[in-house]
Amino acid sequence: MSLTRRSLLVAGTVAAGASLVRPALAAPAASLSPQLLARAKAALNQHSGQIANRDVIAIADFSQPSRQPRFHLVDIASGRVSSHLVAHGRGSDPGHTGWLERFSNDFGSNATCSGTFRTDGYYMGAHGRSIRLSGLDPSNANAQGRGIVVHGAWYVSPAMARSPGILGRSEGCFALGSASLEEVMARLGPGHMIYADKVSA
């Protein structure tokens, strides 16, 4: 009888544990701002003629500090979200606080620019395999000329996010850690959209 009671207790504990685990698995999706998601979907519709592949989009939420996974890959059909660390430009954070203070589209600003980007293709550059980008809005129209791309960077990693709690800075590019870059390369090939912005506190 004691074995039966114990087995029932264990089964109940496992079942309860399972119900607690499910929401935790969805936690990354909760970190994506609904307001920013709505803006991104509106941008996807606005630029539909220039975005050939609409199955997966990326949203960079620069409202969040660099230590937070704020580069979100969103599966449009299922709503599933995969979140990754991403650095912002040094011109957007002159004091290296980890918070993006301003966007800029200016040449020589070394800043992150906001708006809708289209992924244009892979290439091998100074940072290894990277993705070229075109800016589709007035706020990022100089992205291609400035060399704003998606690339990997040694200064982006979970270890750095934990301690010192701040990532390094790019020159305006979307700089990702090596593991994240692999997934982004696989899912965000040419003809996809990246939307970058921030929301008010």
Architecture of the largest domain, according to CATH? Answer: Beta Barrel
| Secondary-structure element series | HHHEEEEEEHEHEHE
Largest sheet: 9 strands, mixed
> What is the helix content?
25-40%
**Rounded radius of gyration (Å):** 19 Å
* Number of β-strand runs: 9
What class, by secondary structure content?
alpha+beta
* Tally of separate helices: 6
- The whole-number mean of residue pLDDT values reads 87
Report the portion of residues in β strands.
15-25%
Itemize the secondary structure elements and their pairings.
Layout: H1 2-25, H2 27-30, H3 34-46, E1 56-61, E2 71-75, E3 81-84, E4 86-87, E5 115-125, E6 128-135, H4 143-146, E7 149-152, H5 158-162, E8 174-176, H6 178-187, E9 193-197
Parallel strand pairs: 1-9, 7-8
Antiparallel strand pairs: 1-2, 2-3, 4-8, 5-6, 5-9, 6-7
Please give a quick description of this structure.
The protein is 30% helix and 24% strand. The chain is α+β, with helices and mostly antiparallel strands and 201 residues long. β7 (149-152), α5 (158-162) and β8 form a beta-alpha-beta unit.
Describe this structure in words.
This protein has 201 residues and is an alpha+beta fold. The protein folds into two domains: 27 residues; 167 residues, L,D-transpeptidase catalytic domain-like. The chain is built from six helices and nine strands, in the order αααββββββαβαβαβ. It has a nine-stranded mixed sheet with strand order 3-2-1-9-5-6-7-8-4. A hairpin with a 2-residue loop joins β5 and β6. The longest helix has 24 residues.
